[in-house]
Write a structure and sequence with these properties.
CATH superfamily: ANL, N-terminal domain
Helix content: 25-40%
Strand content: 15-25%
Number of strands: 10
CATH architecture: 3-Layer(aba) Sandwich
Distance between the termini: 24 Å
Length: 247
């Protein structure tokens, strides 16, 4: 059931504006404007369902409007409990475009771990995949609002049909995001450790990671493609997010 979410095509010489972006939001928007008809997301768990960059960007803007109505804004946190799928990529990108940080919960984690992460990160709301909702039975009290991430024909979950606030300016929202804003909170534990360690990851850290992996490590030829199987917040130790990089 793991989706392959993201196809990143290395920009040709002279078309590397996305690599000069100062935030993931800016890199995402540059990509969507430059190659709107290129495939951005592919869900192999759903018969190869694909979204172009144009469709991806439109879904992100729609979900960002819904999240804004729910109170998500710069500095807030949004938690996710879902497998790797386009709906997760869209919701994560929408969260970043509002200047909020994402917190990924892993379905395999014991309830005590999920509860600790929720209490420590204090997310405004939790978006959960419908098939994983049962994992929250013992910890739902630790988060104020829970919404289903999937389950609607629009590919983003029924909550995405919530209308944006009156006067909501999506472009103005993502342009206020700064390099030192949080991308996400990551919780890890070393072998044998009982307590979880928290790492706050910034926009600038992921942009720097993106440049390093694409340039120094990967050294790809212009026009070649790279695939990732993880999405924005989940791949904290990997590239900033294949979903938000130039395509």
């Amino acid at each position: 059931m793991i989706s392959r979410c993201s196809l990143f095509t290395v920009p040709a010489a002279g078309e590397r504006a996305a690599l000069l972006a100062t935030t993931l939001c800016e890199a995402f928007q540059i990509s969507a404007a430059r190659v709107p008809d290129r495939i951005a997301l592919v869900d192999h768990a759903d018969h190869g369902r694909a979204l172009t960059w144009s469709a991806y960007a439109a879904a992100v803007e729609r979900v960002a409007g819904a999240l804004a109505t729910l109170g998500v804004r710069r500095g807030e946190r949004v938690a996710f409990l879902a497998r790797n799928r386009p709906e997760l990529a869209i919701a994560e990108a929408a969260t970043l475009h509002l200047g909020a940080a994402g917190v990924v919960l892993y379905a395999a984690s014991p309830p005590a771990t999920i509860e600790h992460v929720l209490r420590d990160s204090e997310p405004l709301l939790l978006l959960v995949e419908s098939e994983l909702d049962g994992r929250l039975a013992e910890v739902r009290h630790a988060v104020g609002q829970t919404l289903t991430l999937d389950g609607a024909s629009n590919g983003c979950g029924a909550f995405a049909m919530i209308a944006a606030p009156a006067g909501f300016d999506f472009e103005a929202a993502w342009r206020t995001v700064q390099p030192d804003d949080l991308v996400g909170l990551v919780y890890t534990s070393s072998a044998g450790a009982v307590a979880l360690e928290r790492e706050d990851v910034l926009q600038v850290q992921k942009i720097d990671s993106m440049r390093w992996r694409i340039g120094a490590r990967c050294s790809p030829r212009p026009g070649s493609s790279l695939r990732w199987g993880r999405t924005i917040v989940a791949s904290i130790s990997a590239t900033a997010s294949a979903n938000a990089l130039p395509a």
